[in-house]
Amino acid sequence: xxxxxxxxxxxxxxxxxxxxxxxxxxxxxxxxxxxxxxxxxxxxxxxxxxxxxxxxxxxxxxxxxxxxxxxxxxxxxxxxxxxxxxxxxxxxxxxxxxxxxxxxxxxxxxxxxxxxxxxxxxxxxxxxxxxxxxxxxxxxxxxxxxxxxxxxxxxxxxxxxxxxxxxxxxxxxxx
Length: 175
Hints:
This protein is mainly α. It is about 60% helix and about 5% strand. It contains six helices and two strands; from the N terminus they run H-H-H-H-H-E-E-H. The radius of gyration is 17 Å and the shape is globular.
């Protein structure tokens, strides 16, 4: 039976939200688990879509920013340096530097999930109501953690579309 795991070492609502993030992270890893390097960097038939690698990099980039918002209600400068910008010069999702392999991209994302877990251990039910700066507006900590799970799941749909296209005509892109 599918269910979200409620941990005894976190506040109940915090645990529920973290569990949703963790579940989607595991699902994402499962979806991409057997991708070749060529499939990982495949951008669709017309080469105009974001590749799975770009999407994995983007999810990690967005999530680490949420972790820091929740941690300190600010995103330190070093995060931009380590994870890079949210978009490239043309406003698109940036390519991960040096075309890392699947294992490295998943390792980076798991690191961020582990960072979130560490923060969630410290959060109380009351903390979930705290406002955070977000895109020139505010959001609660509760909404931020929910958004991490939702955003991950949203891009899983894009990855599934790329996988279907790859199966249909990707063999010609295999190196």
